Amino acid sequence: MSETRTRTLNWFVRGGTLRTPEGQTHTIDVDPLVVGREEGAGVRLTDPEVSALHCELRAVNEGILVRDLGSTNGTLIAGVRIKEGILTGSAEILCGQTKLAVEPSQKTRVDVGFADRFGGLVGSAPRMRRIFSVLERVAPTPLSVLILGETGTGKEVVARGIHDHSPRKDKPFVVVDCGSIPPTLAESILFGHEKGVFTGATERKKGALAEADTGTLFLDELGELPLDLQPKLLRALAERQVKRVGGSAFEPMDVRVLAATRRDLSLEMNAGRFRSDLFFRIAQVRVELPPLRERTADLPQLVEEICVRAGKKEHAGTVLAWIEQRMGAHDWPGNVRELVNVASVAATLADTPEAIDDVLTLARDDDGQPRAAQTAFTEAKRVAVAGFEREYFASLSKAAKGNVSEMARQSGMERHHVRAYLRKYGIAKSE
After folding, report:
1. DSSP designation for 245
2. pLDDT tens digits for the chain (431 residues)?
């Protein structure tokens, strides 16, 4: 395994200042500055036309990145409603009826730290080094952390690393996947239940909060947590006590909460699907992991690390050369998880490089561009799943006579998910 590098990289960004109509000034740097009506917003406005979380600003290399957070009335610059844009000069941002003056500054150097790894995560890109420095400072504290990022970026690896670098490292680390909790059992899974309180409750059982007592509870896919359960979780965290379903007494608990999500919780809060008070309780510290396509300079280090863990360190050069030759234009939609799959297989076969091409098939888009390297099994599985999905939603559309709400009811899915599948396979609602 390569030794931890002790040099820091130069990372320059263009920050600036934001001024409110009342004359308050806020600094814009690499950490997002959130504008909204919520108490937890960095710039809190009382304008009723401003959403709970309206927009955010942060410093990047080119200037100040402005991103709308799914606000109701939009974020406007020079009369144009934007979703995301970069300011390189002075500008006025309109949020509701409130005008905010933004003034970019000269490029300044950002301290990105020395470490090129944290727990199971590795990377030398400036953004990753800064994340590692934040995690090193946060891990020993009792602060709750919300980890953001696409699927496959390593959110659970970060949570495990925080736990392992904390005073609770020898205590329980309990994982709850909120995306797979059956709605009818969600409360029981989190809080536990008494014997006989519902059909199948044959014994008294602890919930995840009690099991994590003195340790860490990791709530994966927090954005999937049922809305009716959110105030109960908030109360348990605020009061540091838990009551089982069907129980009458509260039990004290000492739990550190870490959470992760691939959803944009700002959009969820503005849409009323996620409670802002729970968000700010859990997101005392926010860490956003970049997708692999935004840190491809880390590929050599990542490939080396994967080969070391596979017991094939000597094959790292061959694997990297194959990836650079065959997948140079690939944007890695599966992120580091996809790279681990590809590099692990390639490392195993690197004694005879031609075998890598035989086993790893390079799937391509309709325009002939490479999309992903997959094992023959994975590709066959992908084709089979796609066939099932196409047939299922075509039949569902026909049975529901194109009514998306009825299709959602029959499939047990959200309407926007149903619409996504219809678009994916070109199924007309009337079919």
Report:
1. B
2. 344 444 445 678 888 999 999 999 999 988 899 999 988 899 999 999 999 999 999 998 889 999 999 999 999 999 999 999 999 999 999 999 999 999 998 877 777 778 899 999 999 888 899 899 999 999 999 999 999 999 999 999 999 999 999 999 999 999 999 988 888 888 888 998 888 777 777 788 889 999 999 999 999 999 999 999 999 999 999 999 998 888 888 999 999 999 999 998 988 998 889 999 999 999 999 999 999 999 999 999 999 999 999 899 999 999 998 888 888 788 888 899 999 988 998 888 877 766 677 667 554 444 544 455 555 555 555 666 677 778 888 888 888 888 888 888 787 777 777 887 888 788 875 54
Q: Cα angle at 230 between 227 and 234, to 5 degrees?
A: 165
Q: What's the sign of the alpha-carbon dihedral 277, 149, 227, 241?
A: negative
- Helices 155-164, 126-138: inter-axial angle, 10-degree rounding: 40
Are 70 and 266 spatial neighbours (Cβ–Cβ below 8 Å)? yes
Give the CA angle between residues 258, 259, 263 to the nearest 5°: 165
Beta carbons of 23 and 30 less than 8 angstroms apart = no
Residues in contact with 20: Cβ distance below 8 Å, sequence separation at least 6, in sequence order: 26, 43, 45, 98, 100
For the record, the structure tokens of 321 come out as 């050369």
Residue carrying structure tokens 């006590």: 241
C-alpha to C-alpha distance for 167 and 273, rounded to whole angstroms: 34
In the numeric block, which tokens belong to residue 393? 């939603």
